[in-house]
Amino acid sequence: MPFIASFLRRIYLSLGELAWSALFLILVLHLVLSYLLFMLAGEGDLVGRPVDFVYYYMVTATTVGYGDLSPKSAPGRLITVLIVLPGGIAIFTAVLGKLLTAIGTIWRNRMRGLGDYSERAGHIIVVGWQEGQTHQTLRLLHSERHANEPMSVLVAKDLPENPATDYADYIRSDRLADADALTRAGIAQARAIIARGANDDETLAAVLIAEDHAPNAHIVAYFDDDRTAQMVKQLRPRVEAVGSLAEELLSRSARDPGSSEIAARLLSAASTDTAFSLPVPPLQTPLLYGEVFLRLKRRYNVTLVGMLSEGMTDLNCRDETPMRGGETLYYISGMRLDPAAIAWARMGDET
């Protein structure tokens, strides 16, 4: 008896909440009842083949009514009018309404930062929100997205809804150093992570969590205090720590007019002359920096400005500097080069 009472209670609750299981049960019962009644009424055209009956049931329930199948007898028409049509319409309306409600709930949850993007891969995660700066960062990231690149994900706190719906999806968190929130943002397969908290302590905490959960992502963090940025660079080589360059730009522009303009153009995605990076794949035959410089200039009209090799960056490489693969080249161009489109094996043929 307790089992039966529990079972009946579950049925009652499912019907009361109009759960999917209850809707499916009602649909099956209505289908079977309609089929049996048509069979008793002698409507052989409708129940002769199950496919024909299901087809007739669906076009009737959705009020499409093509007219190629219809009851021939008076009892069959009464069954359609009194049983099939009202019941089918009611079930179809309930299913449609519940489906739209579910879709709306999912969308509202995504807007409120309650979504789950843990399966996303190859995207960029932005941790932290500052009204003007973060919105600009997301806009720039969005402007450079490739055709198949997933949308960025913003992880922030104290925001009731996504503040940048055109540029990023949103994960809401009580704190930035939240492993669960970063997991829902897809940190395991993220391409890069940008961290900028309300203060340096918050940023550093987010960076430490990101390092543990994103073994292959490039991590960029902004620190207000240059001393903190330098410390992070020394202790966390995986992290690209960025500090404020305002003082350097002011002093350099005073002695070298236009320096701030050059720096702004090199870092702006909207500029026609922007700095990009290019990873060098493993090479069968070593190349010289000067050979690569000339080949890229002649073929792609880009200007090499430096190279990262063995953890050291040189912005004024000598022509005879060897390249064996694994380096990162920095160049100025109006477009980003596709690494896969460059014929590295023939790079030294032309000088």
Automatic annotation (TrEMBL):
Work out whether the entry's keyword set contains Cytoplasm: no
Where would I find the Potassium channel domain in this sequence? 26-102
User: One GO cellular component from the entry?
Assistant: plasma membrane
* One Pfam family it belongs to: Ion_trans_2
**Chain segments annotated as transmembrane:** 20-41, 81-107
GO-annotated biological processes = monoatomic ion transmembrane transport; potassium ion transport
| Residues of the RCK N-terminal domain | 176-235
| Lipid bilayer topology | Multi-pass membrane protein
Q: Which InterPro entries match?
A: K_chnl_dom, NAD(P)-bd_dom_sf, RCK_N, Trk_Ktr_HKT_K-transport
Domain of life of the source: Bacteria
Q: What is its main location?
A: membrane
Alphabetized, the UniProt keywords read: Ion channel, Ion transport, Membrane, Plasmid, Transmembrane, Transmembrane helix, Transport
Q: What is its subcellular localisation?
A: Cell membrane
Q: Which PANTHER family match?
A: POTASSIUM CHANNEL PROTEIN 2-RELATED-RELATED, POTASSIUM CHANNEL PROTEIN YUGO-RELATED
Q: What is this protein called?
A: Putative cation transporter (Potassium channel) protein
Annotated organism of origin:
Rhizobium etli (strain CIAT 652)
Q: What lineage is on file? A: Bacteria, Pseudomonadati, Pseudomonadota, Alphaproteobacteria, Hyphomicrobiales
